[in-house]
Amino acid sequence: MAHAQREQVIEWRRWMHRHPELSQQEYGTMAFVAERLTEMGLQPRTGIGKTGVMAMLRGGIEPDSYCVALRADYDALPITECTGLPFASENPGVMHACGHDMHTCSLLGAAKILCQLKDQLRGSLMFIFEPSEEMYPGGARMMMDDGLFSEVTPNEIYSFHCLPEMDYGRMGMRKGKYMASTDELYWTVKGKGGHGATPHLSVDPIVVASHIVIALQQVVSRNAAPMMPTVLTIGKMAEVGGRTNIIPDTVKMEGIIRTFDEQWRLEAHEKIRKISTGVAEAMGAECDLFIDYGYPFVVNDDACTQQVHDNACAFIGKENVEWLDLRMTSEDFAFFAQKIPACYFRIGIHEPGTPFSNLHRANLMVDERSLELANGFIAYNALCALINRIKQ
Asked: Which of 29, 41, 169, 356 is most buried, taking the most CB atoms under 10 A from its CB?
C-alpha cells in the first residue's frame, strides 16, 4: 500500500518543501494537512496550539478500548536554501532544513493507509501534526495546553525524525534516555563605555564577556560528573554600540546548556549564574543572566521501543536496524513522552554515495525513497501497537 501511493506522498512533500513556514506561522501548512485528512474521510481539528492539527481515526472494532497516537512536526527554519532542487523553497529565507516536510507527509501517507483499514482496526488512532517544534515553548506543550488530550488520552505515542548521517533503508532507536534537555541562556554584560585609546577610564564589557566565556568552560570540564553528558555552548556574542575606537557600554551573549539529569540541570544553572555574575563583579562590571527553561530530555519507554525495534526488524530486516547512542540534540516530543509511554526513533535519509549534509544546513537533501519506507513503517507499527496493546 505504501508503494502504491509513493508518488503522491512525494508530491505532497515537494509541495511542503516549496512552501515552508516558520514556527507559529504555519497557517498554509495547517490548511494543507487538514485538506489532505478531510480527503481521507477524517474530521480534523485545526488551530490547536495556534496552528496545529489533530484527527481521530476510530476503528471498526471497540474504538474506545485503546488509542495509539502518531505525531509529526511541520515548522521550518530561518535558513536560505541552497540545494538547487527544482522544488526548492519559494519563501525567501525560510527552508525545511530539518526534514519536517518529510515527517508530515510520511504521517499523511500512513494515515491514508490506515484509513483504508479502518473497519479492521480494534481501537483508535490519533494523528497529531505539531507546529512550532523549533521554537519555545514548543508545539507539543502548546497543543496539550490547548486541550489536545481533553477528550482522549492515548495509551501510547510514536514519532520519528529523519537522520541524514544514516543511509536510506536503515532505522535506529534507543531505550530510556535518548535526547538531551535544553535551556537557552541570555547574558547582558554591563560595563562603562569610552574611547578606545583610554581604556583605563572605561570598564570594557567585551573583555569581561570574554573572561566569562572562558570561565564557563569549567561547568562542563570540572563541575559535571565525567559520566554525565553535558554541553554548554555560547553561540552568539554582540556588542551594543562600539566601533574600532569606541568601547561599548554593553555586550549581549546567547547560548545553550544541555544534559540528561534534572538535579544536575538545576545545579548547572546555578553554577553558570554564579560564575557569570562573579567574574563580572570582579572586573568592575555587572552581568544579568536570563535562563529560559526549555524542553526536558526525551525518555523512550522500554516496551514501546522494543516493539518499534522488533517491528523494524520484521519490516526492513534486522541487519538494517541499530541501537543508537545518546544524542545531545533536543526535542519537545519529550513533553508527550512525560505524559504517555512513547518511542521516538530514527529513519535514515542519506542517499549512499552522495555528499552528506547535516540537519539545519542550507543544503540538506532527503533521499525520497525514505518517504515510502517511513509511511509504510508508521502504518505497520501502528497496527502492531493496536494488536499488542502493550500498556493495557
From this structure: 29
User: For residues 18, 23, 25 and 31, what is the CA-based torsion angle, rounded to 10 degrees?
Assistant: 60
* Owning domain of residue 244: 183-292
Of 269, 292, 315, the last residue of a domain is 292
What CATH number is attached to the domain comprising 248?
A: 3.30.70.360
Give CA–CA dist 26/227, Å, rounded.
40
| Cα–Cα distance for residue pair 58/231, rounded to 1 Å | 43
Task: Tell me how many helices (H) and strands (E) the chain has.
Answer: 9, 16
pTM of the model: 0.93
In this prediction, residue 114 has a pLDDT band, given cuts at 50, 70 and 90, of very high
How confident is the model over 204-225, as pLDDT tens digits?
999 999 999 999 999 999 999 9
Separation in Å, CA 111 to CA 39, 104, 338, 352: 11, 10, 25, 29
Backbone φ and ψ of 208, nearest 5°? -60, -50
